[in-house]
Amino acid sequence: MADRNDATPDAEANVRHICGISGGKDSSALAVYLRKRVPQMEYFFCDTGAELPETYEYLTRLEVILGAQIVRLNAERGFDHWFEVFRGALPSPQMRWCTKNMKIKPIEAWIGDDPAVSYVAIRADESNRKGYISTKPNIRTRFPFVEDGIAHDDVLRILDDAGVGLPDYYSWRTRSGCYFCFYQRKAEWIGLSEQHPDLFERAVAIEQKVLRDAGTDGDADFGDTAMRGRQYTWSGGETLVQLRARRDEIMQRHEAALTRAATTARPNVPLIEVLADALETEDDQEPCTVCAL
């Protein structure tokens, strides 16, 4: 991607250049990658109020590296409001009301009608994926990593060279996003219960309310009510209470997957890649690319 300067059309005074940071490795690396290439860049983070503590700490570290503020965008209404609007239905891959109302709407309200170029952190080795692409005519999207052939290992190198490294949550989870994100794998839910038991209990409480409102109790078989097409649990097929009770079984399978991934990995592969490969063998569901880049 060519460096931007005031002589280029996109750098006209009325065109905004924006880069969303999720708290994950790819968007963070893109921000670092573009800090000198697009000096007029505006960085933003959609704060749902339900992020991991490690994410907030990492954003502070990033601001030091970038030498710029990361604007926090907050939805006018939080999770509790939208939870009631959707009548106690948990967000799910089929009904991602959290992404729409707590991330996309705040972004587009912040941009308004200003002409803008949005830089999205899709890598060259995953160019079949899509991140946030606005349908508003005043927002144009660019994919610098795809344009410049930047792949996974390059992202890790960019972060290491900048001295910022990876967020601390990568020791047990490979995706950024809300602590109760339904895209978490079961081993990551166990990680949440052990790293942040208070947040895990909050997620349990939300789920229990859904089950009570559906006419079941927290330990009941919810198969009949789930047939109505709503998401009644955060993790597929069981409640968080049931999932936690299977902690040893889940972690044994996870450790076995880690061992297999480490055995088949190329030499000197970073631990984060081994963890990601192991988790992918347990659950290959694609994450929300608005939240998890």
Number of helices: 13
Q: Indicate the proportion of strand residues.
A: 5-15%
Number of domains: 2
How can the largest sheet be summarized? 5 strands, parallel
Order of helices and strands: EHEHEHHEEHHHHHHHHH
CATH superfamily of the largest domain: HUPs
**What number is the mean pLDDT?**
82
β-strand number:
5
Model regions low in confidence, pLDDT < 50 over at least 5 residues:
4-10, 218-229
List the helices and strands and how they pair.
Layout: E1 16-20, H1 25-34, E2 42-47, H2 53-66, E3 70-74, H3 79-85, H4 97-111, E4 116-119, E5 139-142, H5 144-148, H6 152-162, H7 186-195, H8 197-213, H9 223-226, H10 240-245, H11 247-264, H12 271-282, H13 289-292
Parallel strand pairs: 1-2, 1-4, 2-3, 4-5
Helix pairs in contact: 1-6, 7-8, 11-12
Structural summary, described in words:
With 293 residues, the chain is an alpha/beta fold. 45% of the residues lie in helices and 8% in strands. It folds into two domains: 9-171, HUPs (Rossmann fold), CATH 3.40.50; 186-292, no CATH class. A five-stranded parallel β-sheet has the order 3-2-1-4-5. Helix 1 (25-34) crosses helix 6 (152-162), helix 7 crosses helix 8 and helix 11 crosses helix 12 (271-282). The model is unreliable at 4-10 and 218-229 (pLDDT under 50).
